[in-house]
Amino acid sequence: MFLFYGFSGSIDFQNMLDNLKQNKLQIFIAVIVILCFALIRSFETKLFYDPFLNYFKDDFKDLPYPKFNGLKLFFGLFFRYFLNSALSLLLIYTLFQNQDIFKFSLIVYSFFIVLLLVAFFVILEYFPNANWLLFYVRRFIIQPILVLLFIPGFYYQLQSSKK
């Protein structure tokens, strides 16, 4: 058995390899989910109606909001959030295989879609100079940011509950 001694003790590489072999399906699903995130990002202009894609690529600080169809924008943002959320929930369930974590995540994702879409359209309608605020609210809608917060948080929670 080969051990690597680092800053925080030793790492048992044989044990790590055994764990990888046992969890092939979970690793495969996680890789597929990450590739799906990349595909959504790659084809965002073809999949979703979002005139703010080009708007936020420019120096938008002093520009007025672009013209948009509110209903199409709502459904485009909702569809993108739904796809990212479904993939995020699949990734969370694959990694942790815990019903309570999955249910909690589902509730949080459901709460945030309502909150973020309402905030997005309120900013659009009533705050024409809140470009940066709109930028960040939109970013939470269109990118899977919550999963980046949840995975280490749930991992830490599970590790600390084992002690």
Summary of the model, kept short:
The chain has 163 residues and is mainly alpha-helical. Helix content is 76%, strand content 5%.
Q: Can you characterise this structure?
A:
- The chain crosses the membrane at residues 25-43, 73-96, 108-128, 140-158.
- InterPro entries: ExosoTase_F-assoc_memb.
- Keywords: Membrane, Transmembrane, Transmembrane helix.
- It comes from Flavobacterium phragmitis.
- This is Exosortase F-associated protein.
- Helix 2 packs antiparallel against helix 5 (70-96), helix 5 packs parallel to helix 8 and helix 6 packs antiparallel against helix 7 (131-142).
- Helix content is 76%, strand content 5%.
- The protein contains eight helices and two strands.
- The protein starts with a strand and ends with a helix.
- It has one domain.
- The protein is mainly alpha-helical.
- A hairpin with a 2-residue loop joins strand 1 (3-6) and strand 2 (9-12).
- It is elongated and about 60 Å long.
Radius of gyration: 20 Å
Number of domains: 1
**Spans with pLDDT under 50 lasting ≥5 residues?**
1-7
Q: How would you describe the shape? A: elongated
End-to-end separation in angstroms reads 26 Å
Specify the biggest β-sheet: 2 strands, antiparallel
Strand order of the largest sheet: 1-2
Q: Residue-averaged pLDDT, rounded?
A: 90
Indicate the structural class. Answer: mainly alpha
Helix content: over 70%
- Number of β-strand runs: 2
The number of helices is: 8
Strand % is under 5%
SSE order in H/E notation? EEHHHHHHHH
Organism: Flavobacterium phragmitis
Protein name: Exosortase F-associated protein
InterPro entries: ExosoTase_F-assoc_memb
Transmembrane segments: 25-43, 73-96, 108-128, 140-158
